[in-house]
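Quick one, tokens below:
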């Protein structure tokens, strides 16, 4: 057997045993702090919730998030195309123009409906 293979297997087995063992030792012997403040919910610097929990949010926030995702995914499709535009030739160029026309049509529709007007 190859020495590198044996050493790699030994290191992998050693880590597979050492990491759970350290977690177990920490759980057993580690400090525990119980109390009202320690058990209270804490999220992003906001302590206790003040006000009505089930308040309504405007649909505009969700709509803006969906629009961001749509036009962000557009950029994800355009990067591979930009890398391989020379190999794709005119066919790839025409396909991207059609794709961008669809997105531009969607943007015109959004602007005509007044989705981005928040007044």
């Amino acid at each position: 057997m190859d020495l590198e293979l044996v050493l790699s297997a030994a290191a992998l087995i050693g880590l597979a045993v050492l990491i759970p063992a350290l977690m177990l030792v920490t759980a057993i012997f580690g400090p525990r702090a119980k109390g009202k403040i320690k058990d209270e919910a804490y999220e992003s610097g906001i302590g206790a919730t003040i006000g009505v929990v089930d308040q309504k949010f405007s649909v505009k926030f969700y709509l803006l998030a969906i629009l961001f995702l749509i036009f962000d995914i557009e950029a994800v499709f355009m990067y591979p195309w930009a890398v391989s535009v020379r190999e794709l030739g005119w066919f790839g160029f025409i396909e991207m123009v059609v794709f961008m026309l669809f997105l531009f049509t969607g943007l015109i529709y959004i602007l005509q409906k007044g989705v981005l007007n928040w007044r």
